[in-house]
Amino acid sequence: MCKNHGVAYVKPGVVEVREIAYPKLALGNRKCEHGVILKIVSTNICGSDQHMVRGRTTAPEGLILGHEITGLVIECGRDVEFIKKGDLVSVPFNVACGRCRNCKAGQTGICLNVNPERPGAAYGYVDMGGWVGGQAEYVMVPYADFNLLKFPDKDHAMEKIKDLTMLSDIFPTGYHGAVTAGVGPGSIVYIAGAGPVGLACAASCHLLGAAVVIVGDMIEERLAQAKSFGCEVIDLKKDATLSEQIEQIIGTPEVDCAVDCVGFEAKGHGSNSGEEQPATVLNAIMNVTRAGGQLGVPGLYVTGDPGGVDEAAKKGSLSIRIGLGWAKSHSIHTGQCPVMKYHRQLMNAILFEKVHIAKAVNVQVISLQDSVKGYDAFDKGAAKKFVIDPHGMIA
């Protein structure tokens, strides 16, 4: 039997590569005939993984991380009809059954059948159904005919694999943030956060025809990365307010729409830039978005945060100025991205050269053994998207 290795969460601040069980086509004690086993071609480190690694969730010791997966099908269950051995596929990070009310409505991020605790599941993530993560050499994917996106030409896909690996999460997630914020031709949009999701959102805004894309962050290298593909940037460490800095760019202190790509570990702006203030981004984007505008919130917020700044924050209860949002008639859209809603169209945009997402998020390919170093560099604010290549298959 082939050996398997994966990236395990050990304790706050510590991950390690361990030998783990080779995946089986099984769910508990029963055969998983609707699943496949993948040999992983690429699997990415995500900011959501970092929340767990920092100890900011209730993740258990030994959890195998990784929800951004692209792989080769090497074994199929008896009931898999349309996906075949040898197919190169993208795996949405949402585990979805394809049969429940929400899946049938396209809301695959809140499937009702794949997590006994609550709607929605993901690979390698705390409280998300117990599915084994994909920062490994091999992984099992259930409901394969429904979940998997097959690339139409394997050779062409491998030429674009650094871009296509983003289809499992951050490209659709960034795009979803832009779409739910109402970004369209001529929009002026503010994006909070220049991490990989924020950069993917910025690239998505360009794809959707935005006139001005403004990205705010506190890390100079990440702002430089946003600037490299045509974004305006705001250094949130400066004492000038966000609205003042926006006015310097576009002549008015408000934007049409805004996207929160930061989430619950947000820090204060200006003189408070080193201080954690979990509601600061939500309040800031309400402040700078015009009346009648829309807010997309793909940034992660949790129901349990052991490291929260106070007892309320530890339960995910934040001091949000909902009265301001109400007064301005804002539409606010939160939650996991339903990846399947977008990934086929975004695949085509990549394959036909309409977007270069790997360049936008600054992909760096690393080995599975170097994943520990990748986590450390990412935690320190590296302006890179780390892509793990477990089998040395990426040129």
- Counting DSSP H or I runs of 4 or more residues, the number of helices is 15
Structural class: alpha/beta
Radius of gyration (Å): 20 Å
Largest sheet: 7 strands, mixed
Indicate the CATH class of the largest domain.
Alpha Beta
Per CATH, the superfamily of the largest domain is: Medium-chain alcohol dehydrogenases, catalytic domain
Helix content: 25-40%
Secondary structure tally: strands:
17
What's the CATH topology label of the largest domain? Quinone Oxidoreductase, Chain A, domain 1
Determine the N-to-C terminus distance: 27 Å
In the residues, how many domains can be counted? Answer: 2
Average pLDDT reading: 96
CATH architect. name of the largest domain: Alpha-Beta Complex
Q: Strand percentage, roughly?
A: 15-25%
C-alpha geometry = globular
Unreliably modeled segments: none
Describe, in short, the structure shown:
This protein is 27% helix and 22% strand. With 395 residues, the chain is of the alpha/beta class. GO terms for molecular function: oxidoreductase activity; zinc ion binding.
Q: Keywords, please?
A:
15 helices, single chain, alpha/beta, 6-stranded parallel β-sheet, 395 residues, 7-stranded mixed β-sheet, globular, Quinone Oxidoreductase, Chain A, domain 1, 2 domains, Rossmann fold
Please describe what this structure looks like.
By secondary structure, the chain is α/β, with parallel strands linked by helices. The chain has two domains: 217 residues, Medium-chain alcohol dehydrogenases, catalytic domain (Quinone Oxidoreductase, Chain A, domain 1, Alpha-Beta Complex); 165 residues, Rossmann fold, CATH 3.40.50.720. It is 27% helix and 22% strand. The protein contains 15 helices and 17 strands. The strands form four sheets. Strands 5, 6, 7, 8, 9, 16 and 17 form a seven-stranded mixed β-sheet that branches. It starts with a strand and ends in a 7-residue tail after the last strand. The relative contact order is 0.16. The model has no long low-confidence stretch (mean pLDDT 96). It holds the Pfam family ADH_N. Belongs to the zinc-containing alcohol dehydrogenase family. Keywords: Metal-binding, NAD, Oxidoreductase, Zinc. This is Aldehyde dismutase. It comes from Cochleicola gelatinilyticus.
